[in-house]
Amino acid sequence: MKTYFYLTHLFNTLGAAFLALIDPDKCDKVETQVKYMSTNGVDAILVGGSTIGSDNFNDFMKRVKSVSTVPVIIFPSSAMQVSAHADAILFLSLISGNNPQYLISEHIRASPMIKNMGLETIPTGYLLIESGNITSVAFMSHTMPIPRDKIDIAKYNALAGEYLGMKFIYLEAGSGAKHSVPTEMIKAINKYISIPIIVGGGIRTPDDAHSKVEAGAKIIVIGNVLQKKVELTKEFANAIHIVGKVSKP
Ligand code: 1GP
To answer: N or C: less crowded end of the chain, CB within 10 Å?
Structure first.
């Protein structure tokens, strides 16, 4: 529970936590990037991706872990993505989809490996939200995202996740999404459930990240933009760590 408590402590003190997503398929300067991110305001590194063409996830994790000064968390797309070179794994169940493989089957395959490695699991309800185009995660998981305007459906999915004992609800627009998760949806779910919300996918600017936090997100995940322009790390950190700052009118 160490990493879970670390994250909880962060959003309780800073308003929200800032996670950078490293996709092994999109990253060739991983050591330089992770060093920069972890010393300039990123609170934890997530590693994962839904296409994963790289054949050695474990070696990649080892490289990330060797340079990171913050916790490293696996963000798996299948049971293939487990490694002892991590502090924790988001134990994701894709509850917005009706594909048993991502609801429970991959989890059963991964469980004995996770136990042998002594890896911390963070049970997380994963909800795909429609974002203007077909994303890799929707395509690869053979599931249909929740329509952007169907806020009630998203609320009930999130509540079911809470009742199933999930520690977090992850609202996912998909990596490189055209539109990020609507703030009205975040607000409504935040009022409706009592577990913290993670938001990611298609967040391109610090302002957009800030608006997600103001809407109630407790963890923000930034992938593509930071992998392309790591120098934006500090700006995103300032926009996400809102406590003590005056909010916009
Ligand atoms: C994907 O939420 C993450 O799971 C990050 O998305 O790459 O669009 O920032 P981006």
So the answer is: C
